[in-house]
Amino acid sequence: MKEQVVYVVDDDQGLLDSTVWLLESVGLKALPFTSGRAFLDACDPGLTACVLLDVRMPGMGGLNVQEELRARGIDLPVIFVSGHADVPIVVRAFKSGACDFIEKPCNEQLLLDSVQQALRRQAERRGRQGGPAALRARLDSLTPRERDVLLPLVQGYTSREIAEQLEISVKTVDLYRARVMKRMQAERLADLVGMACAAGLVDPLDLRGSASAQSAQAPQTQQA
């Protein structure tokens, strides 16, 4: 079973150290970061992991980090831990996909329960996608043209950009995209990105920020 990781992102060094100690005391691997940018630079979407994320940090706040994760097509569970839990912030966090929002100072057991639940759900979702052999079999089932579309797709290029690269129509790219998603058994673009990273097709640190725009872009039927 793959190692489970908890990314801890907080600019308060004291709280960061205590949170890492708490997680490691129950056998979890915790990776600490004092800035959102440093975390994003190191984040590996292929891991079974979750993110403990502070809201207010210098430079790049937690909500912006969450948005950047989505922009890169990285689908890791996000748990906000913050002393600033006013309603608009909480609503925005959950609308953007946060799985929990815990106020500081937080109950240690509440925090551990939330982390364990997030990791369990992530592991179950990854398990439904199958192991390395199943992933390789799905990749091998792709046609050459589907593979041509897969790589720029997970790198974050839009359908229009892929169409220009391959010199085909946007409608045709959308058709191949749908076939790739079905063959790879991916419900969302983020799932496909995680599979590609796990298979070593792309470098998780070299993904374009336009992935979220394409994820939200629904293929449209065009008139012949």
From TrEMBL:
SUPFAM superfamilies: C-terminal effector domain of the bipartite response regulators, CheY-like. The keyword ATP-binding does not apply. Residues 135-200 form the HTH luxR-type domain. Pfam families: GerE, Response_reg. The modification 4-aspartylphosphate is found at residue 54. The keyword Zinc-finger does not apply. Keywords: DNA-binding, Phosphoprotein, Transcription, Transcription regulation. Residues 5-119 form the Response regulatory domain. PROSITE patterns: HTH_LUXR_1, HTH_LUXR_2, RESPONSE_REGULATORY. One of its GO terms (biological process) is regulation of DNA-templated transcription. InterPro entries: CheY-like_superfamily (IPR011006), Sig_transdc_resp-reg_C-effctor (IPR016032), Sig_transdc_resp-reg_receiver (IPR001789), Tscrpt_reg_LuxR_C (IPR000792), WH-like_DNA-bd_sf (IPR036388). It comes from the Bacteria. GO terms for molecular function: DNA binding. PANTHER family: DNA-BINDING TRANSCRIPTIONAL ACTIVATOR DEVR_DOSR. This is Two-component response regulator, FixJ family, consists of REC and HTH domains. It comes from Geopseudomonas sagittaria.
